[in-house]
Description:
The chain is α+β, with helices and mostly antiparallel strands. The chain has helices at 20-31, 78-99, 105-118, 165-174, 176-179, 184-197, 238-270; strands at 35-39, 43-49, 63-67, 70-76, 130-138, 141-147, 153-155, 158-161, 210-220, 223-233. The strands form 2 sheets. Strands 8-1-2-9-10 form a 5-stranded antiparallel β-sheet. Strands 3-4-5-6-7 form a 5-stranded antiparallel β-sheet. It starts with 19 loop residues before the first helix and ends with a helix.
Amino acid sequence: MFRNNYDNDAITFSPQGRIFQIEYASEAVKQGSVTVGLCSKTHVVLVALKRNAEDLSSYQKKIINVDNHLGVSLAGLASDARVLTNFMKRQALASKMTYGRPIPVERIVEQIGDRAQTNTQNYSNRPYGVGLLVAGVDDTGPHLFEFQPSGMTQEMVACAIGARSQMARTYLERNLDAFADCGRAELVTHGLKALKESLNQDKELTVENASVGVVGWSVVDGKKGKLEGFKLYDGEEMGPLLEKALEESGGAKAEGEAEGGEAQTESMDTS
Length: 271
């Protein structure tokens, strides 16, 4: 993808004000398998589609537990994600040892953003070729952040990154108003439905290629209860979650077809 003399490093601007190596790193994120994040008033959910390089290999891990209150999902280069998540684990541990409390979600996201942005100031470094969705809870509530290779971070209500993520984003935008009041199970179902929207027609979600991460607060009598630590659902644990999501999506599809058939019958009667 060599374009011109302005893409030899990550510190040189083109005459149009672009840094091409950051754009190349962002392209690596777009080529990665899709991952979806959703946030309600009590929980944050990460849902990811896993890939295997070939039939003989295992599926690549897409969701990583950083701390009891924090986890990330990735799209792009898994090796770069491993470097960033190891850094996040060290920072989370340092916060517990120094201050005796879990690190606030916004602070750790700012730290990885600063680390990534520093790579655009040194000739010998390159941008991280990975995008992250960071899900966590702290004293201020549940949070979902998006991290980009440029070092830019932003808090989101719902987000999808990776290949064919536009289809998932369309679903999220269509159901955005419902997420705030969703419980844990409902939010997971919405995430799996959004992930299913991004699949090719010849592919289906299975216990092998899908994984879910959830973190949040329990609710007791309408009030915030105990912390429900970050829980990763993988393998056979995905079975009940997938069955519920597929049942609901199948029922909604059948209902839509029935309404369409009734409307067509009425139009034929009136004509």
